[in-house]
Design brief:
Elements: H1 35-69, E1 75-89, E2 93-106, E3 111-115, E4 120-125, E5 128-133, E6 138-140, E7 144-156, H2 160-170, E8 175-182, E9 185-189, E10 192-193, E11 200-207, E12 218-226
Antiparallel strand pairs: 1-2, 2-7, 3-6, 3-9, 4-5, 4-8, 8-11, 9-10, 11-12
Amino acid sequence: MVPRGSSRSEKGQPAENYPPFYRTIPVTHSKPPRRRRSCLGKCLCWMACLIILQIVIVGILAAIIYFAFDPKLPKYSVDSMRITEFNLSDGDSLSATFDVNITARNPNKKIGIYYEGGSRLSVWYTGTRLCQGSLPKFYQGHRNTTLLNLSLTGQSQNANNLLSSLQAQQQTGSIPLTLRVKAPVRIKLGKLKLPKWKPLIRCRLVVDSLAANNAISIKSSSCKFRFRL
């Protein structure tokens, strides 16, 4: 008789008993999250919070300024224009001198405007600059109207085609011009002066003639004020 769990050898003797074989499967442990990722997430979260806080603070300051000072955009108009020189010289070079009268209005009760140096003012016809000049430095107080008498000069090369186009347009009695003004200004809120910035003023004009030493009629004029940092 052979006991259960044992076997007999060829010689008839019981074979040695061995424990049953079990296959072991290695256990894998998931790696803990890296610390670097958690630090990066915290940094991004803090940056987002700071940006949102800055936006909220700027919005609050803008609301305070708006309700305390009631800001309004300045207004500009081109009142008259006179051309003292507009002819070809030295072959195909066009020389031009414009005298322009501009009115600048500050409608604000509590806001002043400093017009700084370095301004540029120019007159254009269909993408060609005819003449240019600059604004004087001055301070415009509350609810102030300032009249500016400006002289603009310029010279255009290879102007034969330009002059032909102007003469053809003059036959219609309507010549479109664009007046561009880039003026560095500083805004004064009470006793506080804000940093300098450069608005862009663009006036679209239609005149009846560009003949020198003749009265020029401005048939239409519209000016727009645009912010530029």
